[in-house]
Specification:
The complex is a heterodimer of chains A (170) and B (558).
Chain A: E1 10-19, H1 24-34, E2 38-46, E3 52-61, H2 63-75, E4 79-84, H3 85-88, E5 90-101, H4 104-116, E6 119-124, E7 128-135, H5 137-150, E8 152-157, E9 161-164
Antiparallel strand pairs in A: 1-3, 1-4, 2-3, 5-7, 5-8, 5-9, 6-7
Chain B: E1 3-5, H1 6-16, E2 21-25, H2 31-37, E3 43-46, H3 50-64, E4 68-72, H4 76-79, H5 82-90, E5 95-101, H6 117-121, E6 127-130, H7 137-149, E7 155-161, H8 162-166, E8 168-170, H9 190-202, E9 206-210, H10 212-217, H11 220-230, E10 234-236, E11 251-254, H12 261-269, E12 272-276, H13 282-285, E13 296-301, E14 315-318, H14 321-331, H15 338-350, H16 364-375, E15 380-383, H17 387-395, E16 404-405, H18 416-426, E17 432-437, H19 448-453, E18 459-464, H20 469-478, H21 494-501, E19 504-508, H22 514-522, E20 529-534
Parallel strand pairs in B: 2-3, 2-4, 4-5, 5-7, 6-7, 9-10, 9-12, 10-11, 12-13, 13-14, 15-16, 15-17, 17-18, 18-20, 19-20
Antiparallel strand pairs in B: 1-8
Helix pairs in contact in B: 1-2, 1-7, 3-5, 3-18, 9-14, 11-14, 12-15, 16-17, 16-22
The chains are: A alpha+beta (170), B alpha/beta (558).
Chain lengths: 170, 558
């Protein structure tokens, strides 16, 4: 048979080095919408070389779709290099800011969370306070679920940023 | 070095790139560009609609293999090029399109004739640029020509604000490009080529299936050597026609939805499918699960993303197909395919391409056969989209590559006539014929003026069935004969129309007049000539594999 066997949907973290020029991000994002690919998270920033930016992308799909995502990204002229961090092994972080009621009960229920994860109170007012959580994508999800049970007023989240564990020229 | 304006730099770059023709139409935002073009050494062709300019550039590019160049204005000028650019993107045609843009400081202000052209064309260009800094211009121009013609070719657009085009610079055109993110693979992997040779040696029933990639790579000669060496029957996609001569004994005609029964059957029964510069389009494969069900697949293509996109490939080879075939030809030895070729020959005899021809009406297939017979197999044939396109693919046998120019991927009605004009500009002495329909021709008929002004003897053969024929055929087959909005009542007298522009033509209503009319058209050498063939209205294209179905459900002529 000539067709692809169905494979399970999986999530992958891609690190995409691109030219640091106007319009590049719209080329990358446009590609995903034009080809019907799903992005779960995207974060972009300048790198150690100011002519390049690094886009960290979390994408999902079956094996065939993920292969197409990488190939299609590679076709973009402004894309310099793509690393599949899920293949290579990586560390990742997301940042979440959470506004929450500043009552003694809330503080009490937060205590075990704050000792387990990288969280701190960065602002405290008479009624509400703001928490900063810097954790892996996986842990941020867990923290988010736990905080929901305590009661969230407002939330702001970044996309995932990630780096390969390998030494650069390995 | 004397300073020149941005607009002059564009003209300088075109000259350095060997541009012969620029197709375009001026307007406010590109007045500086057209002022500079006034002094150009190459020809500037004024079109009557910007879509026509892009299709002319496409026709030029496909006939010559060199990039086609277009210059238009901002806003509506640019948006009118969108269909042509999308067409070129789907069919991998190298174009450089320069669009004027409103002054850079007005961008985003909803200025007069402003449109976000880089935004609009992002998904239909290989790459695009908005030039905000004059210092970027030489690099952008060099890159545009390079990117459009290297790897898998395609259209590149440069959006050029009018104030930037009036700024001055020391123009130093780079000799080479250095683009970190664009390094197309040319050499096929030797290990993969060896694996392919091994599969070919083991195969008893090989089929070679080739597409537009062979034409683009200029690999026809290598392809013919290859099929003759391994003695495999060969079929072409619509875009691949001319890759092997139409009369070659190993050629089975086109495959796919309206391909020959024997080509489709050979693919269905084959044990090895060798795909070269083709992309397993849905019009070729139908139901993927039932396409070439017994075959292993070798796939050669310059675009890695074309490989394993639709089908699972056993031996992928990324690279320039000409180079790959040269290497492969050194390794392959003739296999014993005598029995296999005998079967294919048997199928060819059982179900040849055929049509009913007993009444006195002009059958479209007959008209096209006569065109081929009289205008010759060395002609450049362009088509529009629909029934006439399929009949042209089936019945106009061509001798070589770059002769069959058609809109394959996008299926753009209105492509054929301007594409023929572009091809005739490239080859003024060659016979160029546009085979079109009464629906399609009306989508860019205004270019008759361009053809007349430039004294181009393009032949326009209208297969006039008074319908959007392919739509009507589908409505007949799948919508219970409900001909919803497919009848073309109100068609003009196409001959009078041609004459009004300064062209000429003849209306042909009887079968016995066809030959005479085509012969007469050959004598017209200084203006476009319409052959308006009034054909049987409800003629259908056969064979036909309904969309999404398999070879097992092929419908042939009753």
């Amino acid at each position: 048979m000539a067709v692809h066997d169905a494979t399970p949907i999986e999530q992958r973290v891609l690190s995409v080095l691109v030219e640091n020029r106007a319009g590049v991000l719209s080329h990358v994002v446009g590609l995903f919408s034009a080809r019907g690919f799903n992005i779960d998270s995207l974060a972009v920033g300048e790198t150690e070389d100011p002519t390049m930016s690094r886009i960290t992308l979390v994408a999902q799909g079956d094996a065939k779709t993920l292969e197409q995502i990488k190939k299609q990204l590679n076709k973009l002229i402004d894309v310099i290099k793509i690393q599949d961090l899920t293949d290579e092994g990586y560390v990742d972080r997301e940042l979440m800011l959470v506004k929450i009621k500043a009552t003694p009960e809330v503080k009490k229920s937060l205590a075990p969370l704050m000792s387990q994860y990288q969280m701190k109170i960065i602002e405290e007012g008479p009624k509400v306070m703001t928490l900063e959580c810097t954790e892996s994508r996986e842990n941020i999800k867990k923290i988010f679920e736990l905080l929901k049970t305590i009661g969230i007023e407002e939330i702001a989240q970044t996309g995932t940023v990630a780096l390969s564990k390998k030494a650069p020229k390995e | 070095m004397a300073k020149i304006t941005g607009a002059q730099a564009v003209v300088e770059a075109f000259t350095k790139e060997g541009v012969e023709f620029v197709f375009g139409l001026p307007g406010g935002a590109c007045l500086p560009l057209f002022d500079a073009l006034y002094d150009a050494k190459f020809k500037v062709i004024l079109v009557r609609h910007e879509q026509g300019a892009v299709h002319m550039a496409e026709g030029y590019a496909r006939a010559t293999g060199r990039p086609g160049v277009v210059v238009v204005t901002s806003g509506p000028g640019a948006t009118n090029t969108v269909t042509g650019i999308a067409d070129a993107y789907m069919d991998s045609i190298p174009l450089v399109v320069v669009t004027g843009q409103v002054k850079s400081y007005l961008i985003g202000n909803d200025a007069f004739q402003e449109a976000d052209v880089t935004g609009i064309t992002r998904p239909i260009t290989k790459h695009n640029y908005l030039v905000k800094n004059i210092e970027d211009l030489p690099r952008v121009l060099k890159e545009a020509f390079y990117i459009s013609t290297h790897g898998r070719p395609g259209p590149v657009l440069i959006d050029f604000p009018s104030d930037v085009s009036l700024m001055t610079l020391d123009f130093d055109y780079p000799d080479a490009v250095s683009i970190r993110g664009f390094k197309p693979t040319v050499q096929g992997h030797p290990g993969q080529i060896k694996k392919a040779a091994k599969l070919i040696a083991e195969s008893k029933k090989p089929v070679v299936y080739t597409g537009g990639g062979v034409i683009i790579a200029g690999a026809s000669k290598e392809l013919i050597t290859f099929v003759e060496k391994i003695k495999a029957p060969c079929t072409n996609t619509l875009m691949g026609l001319g890759g092997v001569p139409g009369t070659h004994p190993l050629f089975m005609g086109m495959l796919g939805m309206h391909g020959t029964v024997y080509a489709n059957r050979a693919v269905h029964e084959s044990d090895l499918l060798i795909a070269i510069g083709a992309r397993f389009d849905d019009r070729v494969t139908g139901d993927l699960k039932k396409f070439a069900p017994h075959a292993k697949i070798i796939h050669m293509d310059v675009d890695p993303s074309a490989i394993s996109k639709n089908v699972k490939v056993d031996v992928p080879i990324v690279g320039d197909v000409k180079q790959i075939l040269q290497e492969l030809n050194k390794l392959v030895s003739p296999a014993d395919t005598k029995e296999w070729l005998a079967s294919v020959e048997q199928w060819r005899k059982e179900s040849p391409l055929r049509y009913h021809d007993e009444d006195g009406l002009i059958r479209p297939q007959y008209a096209i056969q006569k065109l081929c017979e009289i205008l010759g197999s060395d002609a450049i044939v362009t088509t529009d989209v629909g029934q006439h396109q399929m009949w042209a693919a089936q019945y106009y046998q061509l001798n070589g590559p770059n002769q069959f120019l058609t809109s394959g991927g996008l299926g753009t009605m209105g492509y054929g006539f301007p594409a023929a004009i572009g091809a005739q500009f490239a080859f003024p002495k060659k016979m160029v014929v546009c085979i079109t329909g009464d629906g399609s021709i009306q989508m860019n008929i205004q270019e008759m003026a361009t053809a007349v002004v430039n004294k181009l003897p393009v032949k326009i053969a209208i297969i006039n069935n008074n319908y959007l024929g392919m739509v009507r055929q589908w409505q007949e087959a799948f919508y219970r004969h409900r001909y919803s909005s497919s009848e073309m009542s109100g068609n003009p007298d196409f001959v009078k129309l041609a004459e009004a522009y300064g062209g000429t033509g003849v209306r042909v209503t009887k079968k016995e007049e066809v030959e005479k009319a085509v012969r007469w058209s050959k004598t017209i050498t200084d203006r476009p000539c319409v052959l308006d063939f009034i054909v049987k209205e409800e003629e259908n294209v056969y064979p036909m594999i309904p969309a999404g179905r398999s070879f097992e459900e092929i419908m042939d002529m009753a």
